[in-house]
Amino acid sequence: MKPELMLFWTAVSLYGLSTFSYIFGMIAKQDKLFSVGLFSALAGFFPHVAVIAMRWSATGISPFISISESLTLGVFMTMLLFLVFQFSTKKVRPLGVLVMPVSFVLLGWAGTLMKEVAATLAPALQSGWIWVHIVGASAGFASVLIAAGLGLLYLLKERNSGGIYEKLPDLNVIDVMAYRFVSGGFILYSLMMISGCFWSNQVKGNYWGWDPVEVWSLVSWLTYGIYLHLRVTFGWRGKKMAWYALIALIAMIVSYWGIPFTVETFHSGFRIDHN
Amino acid sequence: MSNIDTPSGSEPEQYPIEPRYHPIHKIPRKIYDFFASARLAMALLVIILVCCLTGVTIVRGEQAWNLIFNSLWFNALLVILVVNIACCFFGRIWYRKLTVISFGMILFHVSFVAILLGIVYNSLFYFRGTIRLTEGEVLLSGDPQSYDIIDKGRFFSFSRLKGETSLIRVNTGYKIGGEDKRAAYEVSVGEEDNKKQGVIYITHKLTHDGFDYFNDKEGYSLLVTLADRHGHELYGAYLPLQSIKQKDDSYLYATGHKEGSKVKASVVLFPAPPVKPLFAMQLAYQLSKVKERDGVAAFELYALDNNGMTKDGPPYATGKAAIGGKFAAGEYVLSAKEVRYWVGMMVRYEPGKTIVLTSLWVALAGMIITTTGRMLKSGKK
Q1: Exposure pattern of A151-175 as b/e (b: 16+ CB <10 Å)?
Q2: Contact A187/B179, CB-based, under 8 Å?
Q3: pLDDT of residue B3
Q4: Which of A146, A209, A262, B49 could form a disulfide with A222 if both were Cys (CB 3.0 to 4.6 A apart)?
Q5: How many CB atoms lie within 10 A of CB B136?
Q6: At what angle do helices A129-159 and A67-89 cross, to 10 degrees?
């Protein structure tokens, strides 16, 4: 097995260990298992970063183009934000109960789709806007995934009491934290869409064409725009918003990885017609 | 109106938050109330979301474009949303204290109005055309006949397009800083005293007098000459070839036409009208793997009936000749003398685009300012 693959599957395995630690920690109400989960995630993050670095250094081409690479970057950004949040606040220790299973599954899926690093980069992708675009997309996803994780904890704390639930912050604090992550995700997602418009304008001369990828990104943007509108204008809080954040995450995953790579667009590295 | 599921400690607002400004007279007041409603905003957002979802799941592609995204009702929904945003924003700032949050909200909402204005302005004056040129060819920029496809706003005048457009050369395998741009077109646009020459490739356009030139597609063009048996040249023309993808992912370069999204090989009349055609010809070109712009041309000639239409049945003459070589067919001799590239360039004039693109950044700034303001506010609490 190539060292790159070994490191990749080591990262997946450690994220898997983290996932089970968080889930069993919740079931057994053992917060020591949350520490195992957190440190397993941290341990998995190192080989994860190493894989990205190895692929990048192999050809000098940024390894964020194919669906597998995009998933790897999305999970990388999620783990980065998750670890920074966990080690800086230590308030919401069971947060990984949703973040880790999603990251584990997405990275495992990336592993099944993994190909050799591309030798060349399609001309349409040779644009500086790609950096703003992918950072906005992956960091936006990381934010809303953490918001959904906080939403899940809100719902669990609301229904249960004592033990690990007692150690969680108040419901309204979790609610505000989730709202902040959604706000941040919405801004990053807007950045992704705006940079996509500029990128398209650079290549094709138009900033919006209602192609499936653009529409799916608009679907996700509107989904979180409605979330913020419901909260700010209609005063929705708590349980409804928690459910909303969880359901919206599904739309986000479909729009990121379900669609863009199945049609010929910038994302699949299209080239101009030769006819 | 109710306070829905509001935990203690949150801001004491009456939800949904409605604008405070009201016109004095009854009818404008009703119209204003309708457009400034937060419920209308929510309904529109949800409807647009559902339309978008439908346009990428139940109906797709061209059907989605025709039924939803390009329809009058969908665009009307978008316009109503912007009017709604404008009214909500106006009511929000009317007699209200300017805060960091409200300033960000103003920027965010104003940007949407500016985007709509930019789109409307653009729709009146825009020009989008596809111009097809063979290397060395010069076409008048302001002549509608020079373009394969034209789409323009009501108030666009062709007098804006001055001078000529010419394709000097196509460079394949074009590299910038080690990056392969694949195809780059060396073009020249404008009139004598105001001419601009430059190279365009997929991430680099040429701009001249407000018009942008983008690369779009390219192909091969063969110079085919017709001579009599004594070698006297009677006619010659560049025949642009289509690239037709084969089942094994290779390309067949042949005369052809587009049917919907597919390209099909087909015959062309030769010589081309208005000169009287002598036969219909299917021309194909096989690239040389050794030398660029070299290879073999394959000819298939079909007889014409009295009406000048291609007769059914097999070709009456077939043959091959190297580029520069000769193919004798009856009393005539055909020759594919040279290979050039043809390109399809997009020519765009979009005067409202700058407003739209700038407004996108303003909207983002508004979002960041509002979010920061809200965080500062909740931090103080």
Answers
A1: bbbbbbbeeeeeebbeebbebbbbb
A2: no
A3: 38
A4: B49
A5: 11
A6: 50
**Residue A242, both tokens:** 């928690």
State whether A233 and B41 contact (CB < 8 Å). yes
- Other residues' Cβ atoms within 10 Å of the Cβ of residue B113: 16
ipTM of the complex: 0.86
Q: Tell which residue, B361, B350, B349, has the closest CA to residue B114.
A: B361
Tell me the C-alpha distance between A126 and B31, whole Å.
50
A127: DSSP letter: S
| Lookup: tokens for B325 | 């070589």
Q: What is the pLDDT of residues A158-167, one digit of tens each?
A: 998 888 888 8
Identity of the amino acid at A124: A
CA-nearest residue to A127 within chain B is B203
Question: CA–CA separation, B237 vs B343, rounded Å?
Answer: 16
Which of B8, B45, B263 comes nearest A229 by C-beta?
Answer: B45
> What tokens appear for B57 in the block?
């799941």
Q: A210 and B263: CB-CB below 8 Å?
A: no
B1's tokens = 């109106």
Most B-contacting residue of A215, A241, A255 (CB-CB within 10 A), to test interface: A215
On whether the pTM is more than 0.90, the answer is no
Ranges of residues in chain A whose predicted pLDDT is under 70? 259-275
Which residues 116-135 of B have a C-beta within 8 angstroms of A?
Answer: 128
Per-residue pLDDT tens over the stretch A135-150:
999 999 999 999 999 9
Cα(A190)–Cα(A198) distance, rounded to whole angstroms?
12
Q: Walk along chain B (381 residues) in steps of 10 and give the mean pLDDT of each run.
A: 41 64 73 87 94 87 88 93 86 76 88 92 95 94 94 94 95 86 92 92 93 92 93 92 83 85 86 91 91 92 90 91 92 94 94 96 95 83 64
In whole angstroms, what is the distance from residue A233 CA to residue B38 CA? Answer: 7
Query: What stretches of B155-205 show up as alpha helix (H) in DSSP?
Result: none
Residue recorded with tokens 């009146």: B124
Instruction: Report the candidate in A253, A254, A228 with the shortest Cα–Cα distance to residue A241.
Output: A228
Q: What is the dihedral of CA B107, B37, B10, A171, to 10 degrees?
A: -100
Burial of B290 (0-12, 13-18, 19+ CB in 10 A): exposed
